[in-house]
Design goal:
Number of helices: 2
Radius of gyration: 15 Å
Number of strands: 8
Shape: globular
Largest sheet: 4 strands, antiparallel
Strand order of the largest sheet: 2-3-6-7
Helix content: 25-40%
């Protein structure tokens, strides 16, 4: 399996309050989607790709940035970066496919404003009855 990851960096002296605000919205949406998956799978319930997308999209919409979230939340990962399993998508396609045990996928919400964009990505590995984030989770903007 591959590890597909995107972190947000800033070039300059320091990110503005607006940069930090959007970063917080995006990372919180990412975390809301991950929590939805972890709790649902942990409860022994099924979850479809669109439901993961909806968790992050609802969070971003609730913070007033919905118009800047212009792509799906994530995609299936296997021996190819973009695989043929369920996509975390309720925007381009209402993906009703279930997320199956022993599968992996990305959660990578983003807000693309006219002046800058923020994306933060994690990968989730689903097992029978559990799900976990693989790898590190970005909590701060990387200074470049």
């Amino acid at each position: 399996m591959y590890y597909d990851i995107t972190w947000t960096g800033f070039v300059g002296l320091a990110p503005s309050g607006r940069h930090r605000q959007v970063f917080e919205v995006v990372t919180s949406a990412r975390d809301a989607a991950a929590a939805k998956v972890i709790s649902t799978v942990g409860a022994g319930k099924q979850i479809a790709g669109w439901e993961v997308d909806r968790a992050s999209r609802d969070f971003i919409n609730g913070k007033g940035f919905g118009e800047y979230f212009i792509h799906r939340t994530g995609h299936s990962i296997s021996s190819d970066i973009h695989s043929n399993g369920a996509n975390m998508d309720d925007l381009e396609v209402h993906d009703v496919r279930q997320i199956l045990p022993n599968s992996c996928f990305s959660i990578e919400p983003a807000c693309t404003l006219p002046e800058f964009g923020v994306r933060s990505e994690i990968n989730i590995l689903v097992r029978q009855g559990s799900a976990e984030v693989t790898g590190k989770i970005q909590r701060e903007i990387v200074m470049v």
